[in-house]
Design goal:
242 residues; outer membrane lipoprotein receptor (LolB), chain A; 15 strands; 15-stranded mixed β-sheet
Length: 242
């Protein structure tokens, strides 16, 4: 499924963040709506909404709005919802729970609970695995975990981060590439560009992320390349609360 492995239900970074920067609180309530392209075709929209629900506790809700060929060909299979919860500890995001569902007959419903006391991941299917020896995040909030470090230096050089999608955990490396100014339907943004590669990848499968400085390092564009060719593109069309 085109969203589930990209940006949460997308598959859009860290308990022990790899950034050397000053702490900044997350806003109490904000959302980013993205246009979604798959193989060069308009497939609809994806919206991510983060809300503070208690002292340093946040929830994330994400859903897709398929259109065009995605809606016609996939129907309800293109509708994916995502829920995550996490605590903000200083300038680090500490994930607590993650769930992703495909709203269709024969679809999937995956969930993982982060047991920090026992240092294990508990999956809905009964699988239990030890937490990796390194920073670990869920696939829903991972791309927003730069935000608590907004305002400081972003120094990312082959930092290792593990991400679980509710089914399995995958290791990635993150690398700062450059600063770049881009324009989307949401506006013009000066961004820091980060590349993400699977640890065992040959670099033909890569996610590039544009984080907007004046939006607190929220991701405003993501491009997924598979087998060396662009496959998925998310671009911000509207931003609220930032």
């Amino acid at each position: 499924m085109m969203l589930k492995t990209f940006f949460g239900p997308a598959a859009l970074l860290v308990l022990l963040s790899p950034f050397n920067a000053m702490s900044a609180p997350l806003p109490d309530d904000f959302s980013v709506k993205y246009s979604f392209e798959f193989a060069g075709l308009n497939a609809g929209h994806l919206t991510k909404h983060i809300t503070r629900t208690g002292d340093n506790h946040y929830t994330l809700h994400s859903d897709t709005e398929p259109s065009g060929l995605a809606k016609m060909m996939l129907g309800s299979k293109a509708i994916i919802t995502e829920e995550a919860s996490f605590d903000l500890e200083g300038d680090n995001i500490r994930p607590m729970e993650y769930r992703v569902k495909q709203e269709s007959k024969g679809g999937y419903d995956r969930k993982v609970v982060f047991d920090w006391k026992q240092k294990i991941l508990k999956y809905k299917n009964g699988k239990v695995e030890p937490m990796p020896a390194g920073p670990v995040m869920d696939a829903g909030s991972v791309f927003f975990s730069f935000m608590p470090r907004a305002g400081g230096k972003i120094d990312v050089q082959n930092d290792r981060i593990f991400v679980t999608d509710g089914r399995r955990t995958t290791g990635y490396t993150y690398q700062r590439v450059e600063d770049q100014t881009i324009t989307t339907k949401a506006g013009k943004f000066k961004c820091v560009v980060i590349q993400r590669d699977a640890m065992k990848s040959d670099k033909l499968n890569r996610v590039t992320i544009w984080l907007a400085y004046d939006k607190g390092l929220a991701p405003v564009k993501l491009v997924k390349v598979k087998a060396g060719k662009p496959k998925t593109v998310l671009e911000a069309v509207s931003i609220e609360g930032l």
